[in-house]
Amino acid sequence: MSAPVQCPVHPDVHLIEDHRAGDLVCPACGLVVGDRLVDVGTEWRSFSNERSGNDPSRVGAPENPLLSGGDLSTTIAVGFGGSDSDNSLANAQRKSMNNTDRQMTAAMSLIREMSERIHLPRNIQENASRIFKDVLDSRALRGKNNEAQAAACLYIACRKDGVPRTFKEICAVSRVSKKEIGRCFKIIIRNLETNLEQITSADFMSRFCGNLYLPNSIQAAATRIAKRAVDMDLFAPSSQLVFNST
């Protein structure tokens, strides 16, 4: 086993990598301890037409396991430079995708747009996309509105990740009705046998109080009141109210 590379004058100093020159440099004395290092980072050199305004990477798009081809297919468009070539490439890529991948790609775009509008993190977007993929494979929602399916999957992902959003909030960032999303939600839960924890108004209290800039004491009191109201059966659980159209 080879000994670790270190500066002979300052052996305890952490060496700095100069990626541009491919050297290991001692920050204390400037001595080049090692050279000809291999940069294992992504190669971002562009081979595109500089006048087109695009700057693609040679390594291509990242693999997407939710698509049947992993999103690694290569399409060659006929034409040279300019917007016409870019459009023909985009059209060729769309034509090369099967119906399932087109529906999956559209759903992921919808989920991302809705998530960004209500500031949901990337992990919830990914979980919602995986749920949509399971639904797509099961064919349980065949013929249903694609955006309603995506919205229902996003609602379920929020519930599963412990950051629930109300149906009203999900509907507000989609272009479909609460009734359509509710129908898709029921079918998904039934067919995928997904168990969701019951949610109450107390689960939303932290976020609502935060949006209103209320102190922690008010938040704690409101949470206790909400939990007490549920214990006394004064309000129905939120899961029973989400389909109420009023």
Q: Which term fits the overall shape?
A: flat
CATH topology heading of the largest domain: Cyclin A, domain 1
Query: Which consecutive residue ranges, at least 5 long each, have pLDDT under 50?
Result: 71-82, 238-246
Please state how the strands of the largest beta sheet are arranged side by side. 1-2-3
Determine the N-to-C terminus distance: 72 Å
How many H/I helical runs? 9
How many discrete structural domains? 3
Fraction in helix: 40-55%
Q: How many β strands by DSSP?
A: 3
In the CATH hierarchy, what is the architecture of the largest domain at level 2?
A: Orthogonal Bundle
Question: Which class best fits the helix and strand makeup?
Answer: mainly alpha
The helix-strand sequence is: EEEHHHHHHHHH
How would you state the average pLDDT, rounded? 74
Strand coverage percent: under 5%
CATH superfamily of the largest domain: Cyclin-like
Rounded radius of gyration (Å): 26 Å
Q: Sheet bearing the most strands, described?
A: 3 strands, antiparallel
| CATH class category of the largest domain | Mainly Alpha
InterPro entries: Cyclin-like_dom (IPR013763), Cyclin-like_sf (IPR036915), TFIIB (IPR000812), TFIIB_CS (IPR023486), TFIIB_cyclin (IPR013150), Znf_TFIIB (IPR013137)
GO molecular function: RNA polymerase II general transcription initiation factor activity; TBP-class protein binding; zinc ion binding
Domain TFIIB-type: 3-34
Keywords: Metal-binding, Repeat, Transcription, Transcription regulation, Zinc, Zinc-finger
